[in-house]
Specification:
Blueprint (H helix, E strand, L loop, with lengths): L3 H10 L3 E7 L4 E6 L2 H18 L16 H6 L4 H36 L2 H10 L7 E7 L20
Length: about 160
């Protein structure tokens, strides 16, 4: 099975190109790429620009631990205090899972930029594509080649008998 890079290179080799469309808050942006190098530069430029603008990505902060330990929580008498402590532990666990995911994503962004890994960069951009103002769509285009001569007298190949 061919990798995404091999398939994309094959597309470029056949004369195809790629359009990268960004949906951002104040405007949309489009990149036309005719080679794998142009595609790589565009993907890295998008991630690099967003990283340095400062409000797209941030280093996550570890959540604060619960006020009392889970063991202490279990020893509390039934009632609203115990319920609140249990909820605090539940919230902390959820926040910790979110922190781990955000930390992994932030590390992926840094690694993609440090190593110029376009596939990791593209993965981050596509993963975040459903976030508000972070849409990205990559579309391959089809090269168009018309035959020479009077087009009124020439039928498209798919219409020939």
């Amino acid at each position: 099975m061919k990798t995404r890079e091999q398939l994309l290179q094959q597309h470029f080799d056949k004369g195809g190109s790629v359009v990268i469309a960004l949906r951002e808050k104040h405007s949309d942006a489009h990149f036309a790429c005719h080679t794998l190098e142009e595609f790589s530069n565009a993907i890295l430029e998008i991630l690099w620009r967003r990283f340095h603008e400062g409000y797209w990505y941030y280093k996550p902060e570890k959540p604060k631990k619960a006020s009392i330990s889970l063991d202490e929580t279990k020893k509390l008498p039934d009632g609203p205090t115990k319920d609140a402590a249990i909820q605090e532990h539940s919230d902390y666990k959820r926040c910790l899972e979110e922190y781990d995911r955000e930390k992994e994503e932030f590390n992926d962004i840094k690694e993609a930029l440090e190593t110029r890994n376009i596939w990791l960069a593209l993965g981050v951009l596509e993963y975040r594509s459903d976030y508000e103002y972070e849409g990205i769509v990559v579309r391959q285009t089809t090269p168009v080649k018309l035959p020479n001569g009077n087009l009124l007298k020439i039928k498209p190949k798919y219409l020939e008998d």
